[in-house]
Amino acid sequence: MSGYETNLYLYSEEMEDRPRISTLISSLANYSNTIPPASNDPDARPAGGGARMGTLIGVYLPCIQNIFGVILFIRLTWVVGTAGALQGFLIVLCCCCVTMLTAISMSAIATNGVVPGGGSYFMISRSLGPEFGGAVGMLFYTGTTLAAAMYIVGAVEIVLTYMAPGLSIFGDFTKDQEAMYNNFRVYGSALLVVMGTIVFIGVKFVNKFATIALACVIFSILAVYIGIFVNINGNDNLHMCVLGNRLLRVESISDCHKNASGPLNDLFCPNASLPCDPYYETHEVHIVRGIKGLSSGVILENIYDSFLESGQYIAVGKDPEDIEPMDEKKKYNQVTADITTTFTILIGIFFPSVTGIMAGSNRSGDLADAQKSIPIGTICAILTTSTVYLSSVILFAGTVDNLLLRDKFGISIGGKLVVANMAWPNQWVILIGSFLSTLGAGLQSLTGAPRLLQAIAKDGIIPFLSPFAVSSSRGEPTRALLLTLVICQCGILLGNVDLLAPLLSMFFLMCYGFVNLACALQTLLRTPNWRPRFKYYHWSLSFIGLALCIAIMFMTSWYFALLAMGMAGMIYKYIEYRGAEKEWGDGIRGLALSAARYSLLRLEEGPPHTKNWRPQLLILVKLTSDLVPKYRKLFAFASQLKAGKGLTVCAAVIGGDFTRSYGEAMAAKQSLRKTMDEERVKGFVDILVARNITEGLSNLVQTAGLGGMKPNTVILGWPYGWRQSEDDRTWQVFLQTVRNVTSARMALLVPKGINFFPDSRERVVGNIDIWWIVHDGGLLMLLPFLLKQHRTWKNCKMRIFTVAQMEDNSIQMKKDLKTFLYHLRIEAEVEVVEMMDSDISAYTYERTLMMEQRNQMLRELRLNKKESLGVVQSIVDQHHQNIDAKTATKVRFQEPAGDGDKDNKVVETEPTNEPNSQIKTEDNENSTTEKEDASEKECNEETKENSISEEKKKPATITPDEGNVRRMHTAVKLNEVIVNRSHEAQLVILNLPGPPKDTKLERESNYMEFLEVLTEGLERVLMVRGGGQEVITIYS
C-alpha cells in the first residue's frame, strides 16, 4: 500500500479530478516557455527544441544592431553642428530617456509571464485588449515598414553621395537638390526590388547577413572612437574654402583664392562690365581645416545652436549679412540649408536612431530565460547606445569645425562623409561598414514587418486583413510581404531621409507611448495576474514616458502627430465597434446605462480567461437574533482579500415567510450595509427569506449576481458549535452548502478561528503558510498573493509546503516547485515535507472509536436530543478515564454570539497522560478576554504517542470502520506535520477535503470530526476548495 493510500486517504475522493502535487509538479521538468501552436493551424510547424540563447546573444547584441543605424553615420554630425553641443546633447538625452522609460515598462510587461514572439503587439494586445493591441500593432507595422524605406534611402545616399557620385542619372546633384532626391527614388526602388527578392527567397540568408551587419556596426563605431583620439591634434584630410563667414563649394581646395584667373573670380564676377558680387568684393577667402582635433578647443565654437531657414547660407554666426541671400537667383557656389531646422524638428529626425529596443522581446521564444534576459539585455543595450550617442555629441563638437558639421552632404569637401574622415585607419572602413549595416537593418525590417502583419491578421481582430493571414507552402507570409513592399515603395518615393525620419518617429512614439500606458494601467488596476518579475518599475515612470512620447510627437510635427493618432483612433474604434450596437440615451444617465449594459453583455460572452480571473466574492453571513452579523471579521477578511477591487456580494438567509418577514429583511439589509461600510467593503447586499435555511443558501449560490458579474468564490463561516448543538442542522447546513458550492463549480473559502483574524487596521508580520496537498486550479497560490496586496498582510512572507511520500523524489519535487513559482512570478520559500510510512497509531484508533461511539449513542437517543448530548458526553468522559494513553487535554470555548453568557462556554475534555490530572476549566468571571474579544479560545497542550501496549487497552465494544480509521490517520498525521512546521504562522492555508458523497448522518458527522482533527492547534486557518478552473497562469 503506497503512502498516498495511508497518509492522504482523507483526500482519496479528490485524486481523480484534483491531482496530488507530486504528480502535477513533475510535469514542470519538461516545461517550455513558448506557447505551442494551435492544433488546427494548417501552417503550424512541429515544435522543435529551438535555440536557447542567453542575454548577450539573444537580446543585447540584436538590440545594439537595431538601435545603431543609418542616422548615426550620416546625420549625427549635422545634428550636433546645427543644434550645438548643448542642445544636441539635450536632443539625444530626450530620445534616450524615452527609450529607457519605455524599456522599463516593457521589461515589466515582458516579465509578467511568458511572452512568445510578437513583441509590442503581443504584449499590449494581451495587456490592454484587442482594441489597443490592434491599433498599436498596425502603428508598429507601419513604423517598421517605413524604417525599411529610410534604411534603403540611407544606403543609396551613402553610395551616391560618398562612394560613387558618378552613378548619378540626373546630372550633378550637388547643384540641384531635386536631382539628388530623384536619384534616391530610382536607385531606392531598384534596391527595394533586390532586397524584397532576397527576403522572399531566403530568410536564412537574412539571418546570416545580420551577423555581418552587426560586426560592421561595432567595427565602424570603434574605428570612429579610435580615429578621434588618434587625430587628437587634427588632420589634414579635409580643408574647406570660406568666403568671409560663408562656406563655399570648390572642385579643388587649390582653387580657393581670389586671383583674376581663378574659378571663384569667374563665378562671382561673370561679366567684366558689371560689378562683382558685393559680398565677394568686401570679404576675403581663406582655407580652414575641417578636422581640428580635441586639443584645438573647437568645442567652444560648437556649444550654441545655428538653426537656419531653408535656403539660407551656412556661415559662422547668425549675422543676417552672412546668412541671408541678397539675390535668390544668384546663390553661386555657397552651401545652403536644404530644410528649415529647429530643436523639435531635429528631435524628430534623430529619434529613429534610438528605436529598435523591441528586438529582444521579439525573440523571447528563443531565449533560455526570457524573464531574466529581456530586462537586463534591453536596458544594458540602451545604456550602451546612449553612452555612445551622448559621448559622440561631445566628441564631434570637440573635433570638427562648426561649418563642416553643418554641411549635411559634405558638399564643401568634395562629397565626403565627415565621420568617415575622422575614422582610423581610413574612410573606407566607415563607408563600407555603414552601407552594409544599413542594408542589414533594412533586410531585418522587411523580414519582421510581414510577420507582424500576419500575426495581427491571424488574430482576426481586423477583418479586412484576413487575406494576409495566409502563409505560402514554405510557411512564408508572401501576401504580407507584397503589401509591405508597396508601403515601403511609397516611403522611398518621398526620397528624403529627413522627411521619412519624423514620419516613422510618430509611429514608434505612439507604440512606445502605448507600452508605457499598458504598464501604468496594469500597475494602478492591480490585476491579480500582474506580477512582473522585474521589480524596478513604477506607474509614475510609465506616465512620464507616455508624456514624453506625446510631447515629442507634437513638438516634432503636430500634423504628423495628428495623422498617427487619427490612424490609431480609427483602428481602435473600428475594432471596438465592429458589430457593436449603439443606443441613444437620455443624457449622461442614458450613456452610463448604455455603457453598463454593453459591458455586462460583453462579459456574458464567455467565461473569463485565466489571466483575468479574480475572486468575485459571495459572503454567506450568519445573523444573530438582533439581525447583526455574527462574525464581523468575515467582512474584514473579504476587504483584505479584495483590496477594493472586483465584486463582493454579502448575503444572508432569514427563516420564515417573505410576506410576514419583509420588514425584518429590510432591517437586516440595512444592518449588513452598515457593517460593510464600517469594514470598508465595497459591494452589494442581498437578503433572502426562505422557510428552509439550506434551500435559501442554495438559491443564493445559484442566483447571486447578474450576467458576467456573478460571484465565483464563496466565503462560508465554520460552524463552531456543531458538536454541542441540540440538533444536527448546524453541520448539515454547512455540509449541504459546501456540496452546493462544489456543484456550482465555485471556489470555497472556509476561515476557521475567524475572530483571531486581524482587522483591516492591524499589520501582521510573520509567515503565511500554504499547505498544497492536492492541485485544484492554483487558488492556494493566488489567495496569499492577493492578501499581500493589502497593507495588513503586506509584510508577511509566503511559505509553500507540499507533502511527499516515500516513493516520491522530494529533491526533484522541490526543484520543480521552485521552477513553477519562478514562472508564476511569486516569491515564496519552498519546502517538501516527507511523510514517513507508519502504522496507524493507537491514538488514531481511539479517536475513531470515540467518534463512532458518539454516533451510535446519537442514533439510539435521537428522540431526546438534549438528553442524548449529556449521556454521550458522560460516556465519552467515562471512556477517557478508562484509557491510560498519551492524548491531549483541550479546552475549547464555543464561538460567542457577542453577549458573553455562561451558556456560551462549553468545555471539551480529553484524557491526559498525567496520573492525577484534573480537567482544566476557567471561571466565567475571570474570562474577561472572552467578553472583550468575543473570540474562540483554545488551550491545546498535546503530545501523542504512536503506540500503546495491548495489555492496557480495554476491548472495544465497537470495531471502527477501516475507512474511518484511515481518514482519521490522514487527519492526525497531517495535523502533526502542520502544527510542527506552522504553529507560529500568521495564517495557514490548506486544501479542504471534499465532503462525503454519502449523506448519512454518521458520515457527515465523521467528516466534521476529521476537519476538527486536521486543524487542531492552529489559531488561524483558511480551508480552500477550488472551483475546478485554473485561476493562475504563467503566461503574460
UniProtKB/TrEMBL annotation:
Domain of life, source organism: Eukaryota
Domain SLC12A transporter C-terminal: 634-750, 763-895, 929-1036
Subcellular location: Cell membrane
Transmembrane segments annotated in the record for this chain: 57-78, 90-115, 135-163, 184-203, 209-230, 335-354, 374-398, 503-524, 536-553
Residue stretches of biased makeup (Polar residues): 910-919
GO cellular component annotations of the record: plasma membrane; synapse
Alphabetized UniProt keyword annotations: Cell membrane, Chloride, Glycoprotein, Ion transport, Membrane, Phosphoprotein, Potassium, Potassium transport, Symport, Transmembrane, Transmembrane helix, Transport
Gene3D superfamilies linked to this entry: Amino acid/polyamine transporter I (1.20.1740.10)
Matching PANTHER family: KAZACHOC, ISOFORM G, SOLUTE CARRIER FAMILY 12, CATION COTRANSPORTERS
Name used for this protein in its record: Solute carrier family 12 member 4
Native organism: Asbolus verrucosus
